[in-house]
Amino acid sequence: MLFNILTIFPNLFDALNHGIIGKAKKNGNFSIQISDIRKHAVNKHGQIDGKPYGGGEGMIMMLEPLKKSLKDIPKNKVGKVIYLSPQGTRLNNAKAKELSKEKAITFICGRYEGIDQRFIDKYVDEEISIGDFIISGGELAALCSIDAIVRHIPDVLGNNDSSECDTFSNGLLKGPQYSRPEIFDEMEVPEILLSGNHEKIKEWKELKSLEATINRRPDLLNNVKLSKKQRKLLEDLASQRIL
After folding, report:
1. Alpha-carbon distance 167 to 213, whole Å?
2. Are 155 and 161 spatial neighbours (Cβ–Cβ below 8 Å)?
3. Nearest one of 127, 141, 137, 129 to 86, comparing CA atoms
4. What sign has the CA pseudo-torsion 74, 75, 77, 80?
């Protein structure tokens, strides 16, 4: 899989050289091609932004540098063009999994007050947001998006089932996790996890997943199709006044 990045801060993407994602990059599970938008600045001062027509605060990224940067990418390697924007559709686990099936994605990393709408209208296939908050530019959003997408590429994770068991993989939050030692500051690992009864452990984890979702993100239940067993667990939680 190929990720093309249009940015004015190429060095920020060095973060992709570390951890699981860095290993996947080294192994060739995906590759990155970074284009510095400033190489196509409109003058010798490196200008790539201008004042918005109609007035208003801040500056807007100009059309020409963006267009030329995009045109530098061979047409057969552009793939899906995504502009990272607070006006976009919210990125979630299902969307990341869907995008992982693309052969190539080109991320447009905006800055300032955004980019000229005409570039979006003509060249952008989709706008994506990583949340209802504002950050300084699209680079950090691109890093988050790439990490989320790459995790779904086969053989990237040590265990291919890992991405299927993560929080949000089934629409619910993941329950608590424990490791050694068994006792820490007088707090013990739940006895069920030490029992060796895999069926009971699985049921406990499903219960804790539902409990975490109800207590922290009850809105997620509106979009989840629960199994009969999960509905029964939900009823049990309600009867215990956890709701």
Report:
1. 10
2. no
3. 129
4. positive
Q: Token pair 């500056």 is at which residue?
A: 59
Distance CA 238, CA 217 (A): 15
Yes or no: say if 69 and 99 are a contact pair by the CB < 8 Å rule.
no
Tens digit of each residue's pLDDT (9 = 90 or more) over 12-63 = 999 999 999 999 999 999 999 999 999 999 999 999 999 999 988 899 999 9
Cβ-proximal residues to 21 (8 Å cutoff; 6+ apart), any chain:
146, 147, 150, 156
pLDDT digit string (tens) for 103-156?
999 999 999 999 999 999 999 999 999 999 999 999 999 999 999 999 999 999
Q: Are 53 and 59 in contact (CB under 8 A)?
A: no
The DSSP H or E segment spanning 117 is: helix 117-123
Where in the chain are the domains? 2-150, 167-239
* Architecture of the domain whose range is 167-239: Orthogonal Bundle (1.10)
- Which residue in the block uniquely carries the two structure tokens 């299902």? 94
Active site members:
86, 113, 151, 166
Residue 161 is predicted with a pLDDT of: 55
pLDDT tens digits along 84-101: 999 999 999 999 999 999
**CATH of region 2-150:** 3.40.1280.10
In single-letter form, the type of residue at position 152 comes to H
218-221 long-range contacts (CB < 8 A, ≥24 apart) are 220/171, 220/172, 220/173
